[in-house]
Amino acid sequence: MTDCAQGVVFKRVTDAYQPSVRGWKKYKVRETSEAIVGAVTGTLSSPRTVLLGRYDDEDRLQYVGRTTTLTRAAAAAVAVLLAAGRRGHPWTGWTFTAGWGSREQLDVTLVEPGLVVEVDVARDASGRWRHPARWHRTRPDLPPRAFSV
After folding, report:
1. What are the tens digits of pLDDT across the range 89-138?
2. How far is CA 3 from CA 10, 41, 74, 93, in A?
3. What is the pTM of this model?
4. Which of 2, 11, 48, 139 is spaced 20 to 30 Å from 105 by Cα?
């Protein structure tokens, strides 16, 4: 086995390395983390994904990532807790892309950054989220200002 920052790579003892063949498996290390919902794709009544942020040292809401596509149950759970973003939203004028290296811009609806959610994330060696976060649950019991980058 080989240990790496994003997980553990493993293979059968009898398997030899074969260039350009995906014979080895990777167990990705994931953890739960909280973040603030700042925008959604889809609509407020039926969000498809949520865009997540955390406050920096200067109290600015910074984008940290987005979720994978929400299940119907998750979309319904979050939709009832969202409010449309007001004038002066921290992300007004920002653009978001569909993924790393993609130029495709997402059509997003800004929401009031008042809802904290818990997601499963995989981090790179510097602590940044490596892949889209997986939805876990809403955390209306937690204050948004408690979470920083």
Report:
1. 999 999 998 776 778 889 999 999 999 999 988 777 677 777 788 998 99
2. 9, 36, 34, 41
3. 0.76
4. 139
- Residue positions counted in the chain: 149
**CA 147 remoteness from chain centre:** 14
Instruction: Please answer whether residues 67 and 50 qualify as being in contact, where contact means their C-beta atoms are separated by less than 8 angstroms.
Output: yes
Q: Which residue has the tokens 């811009």?
A: 105
Q: How many CB atoms lie within 10 A of CB 107?
A: 8
> Measured between alpha carbons, how far is 57 from 62 in angstroms, rounded to an integer?
10
pLDDT digits (tens, 9 = 90+) for 31-74: 788 999 999 999 999 999 999 999 998 999 999 999 999 999 99
- What is the rounded distance in angstroms from the CA atom of residue 57 to the CA atom of residue 108? 26
Cβ neighbors of 45 (< 8 A, separation 6 or more) are 79
